Request: fold
Amino acid sequence: MIDRRRFLATAAATTTLASAGIRPALAAEQLTLGAAKPFSFDALREQAQALAGKPYEPPTDLPRDVLERIDYDAHGKIRFKPDLALFADGPGQFPVTFFHLGRFFQIPVHMYVLDGQQAREIVYDENYFDMPKDSPARALPKGSGFAGFRFQESRLGDKDAPDWRGNDWVAFLGASYFRAIGELYQYGLSARGVAIDPAVGGKPEEFPTFTRFYFEPPKPGSDAVTVYALLEGQSLTGAYRFVMQRGRWVDMQIESSLFLRQDIERLGLAPLTSMYWFSENNKPGAIDIRPEVHDSDGLALWTSGGEHLWRPLNNPPHTTVSSFGDSAPRGFGLLQRDRNFDHYMDGVHYERRPSLWVEPVSDWGKGAVQLIEIRTDDEIHDNIVAMWVRAEPARKGERIDLDYKLYWRADEPFPSPLGRCVATRQGNGGQPGQPRPENVRKFMVEFLGGPLADLPYGTKPEAVLWASRGEFSYVFTEAVPNDVAGHWRAQFDFHVTDDEPVEMRLFLRADDKPLTETWAYQYLPSQAVRQG
Reply:
């Protein structure tokens, strides 16, 4: 598979655009377009529903030997010509450039440009790309399709904007994956159109593909773009509308309709995918020279009852699934809260990776936010999935409409007014100068801000603890001695004798009022390494 670290460092009758009558603000030079065909979002939904009633047909095969020869190095030498970017002409536009097919992206994706209620396919031609004369890509036939696309960061005609040719702010590439940057100008975790049977024992995960994209010409001066997509897979089909806004950060409004071809055991809706290898809370020995390596350090939830929870991520010894039941949740997300460069010491700038928040718009009903954590031994694997799973089974013939928003930002868009968890640490239990007891782990959890900053002098918060089993001891709270107002920590020892996971919860309160969000942690005794 392609190295995600390296990827993040890179991320019929025909007419021409000019003769098609839609030359303005489309491309500086000619792109070849197919014949005009009617288009609407309702018609796209109908097409997806009709496809779901038929057996799945894999995309048309391209010469596999040619695609295999377009390896990482060969693919990196193929660049879409910026002067041919879609919507490149005129001020106030977001140019679109396309990714080439290759060994790691073999399913052809077809791109269409809209003109009112008409759609014309952008017919693939090798001449759209700068590539070496001996590139294996030259053996692909005309009309093969593309691998994906990206919107460029800046708009032409903005004298204060950087050169758009070197910057992009959203990219769709591979299966139904897409990613965007936050206000810190970094890619990181991904979203997906849907997740099918992740972490289901005995079944391989299925990865449906966005096979067609339709681009609306951006309105002059607008900071939003609209893209439609057709999703196809063995178990379902779908129609999507993405309205993506680029301001200080990237926000997306998503409308989707899914049509099930067959029963699905675990159907993940609005799924997020990230990477967590280790952090200050969970680093096995001198595994790496860096203090922490992760795109996200925790799952945040805002429940229908108004409670804010923070679940630090784990790199477990084997795949685990945690479930947080709710009805009509207010939101959830995978966040990168630790923004201190010294905690990573890496030129890829993990401290700048965006956080991604999901806000339901339609009624999601009963279900659960499920967190899947998969064992990894390197940073090149996406091993974290967070998604919504409905309470009712996903059955063949069903239609599922789901509307939601995605916020690609440095922080969650709807933070709790209470203090937030900013650090989780653990080590050997017991007391200095005394024999350390077996099966006892010491935890230190830090909270910052909110009402903690306004506590009356002499008031000491109380730690409210709960665990699914086991015993607490040596519980106390104290202000972190760093002269930062409202920075408190709770410390406790925890004793459990078996190796099964333990669910734990903690928050701080005073005068019977909560002062912080709830720390919700899964302790894995089998992973605790005794030191000394």
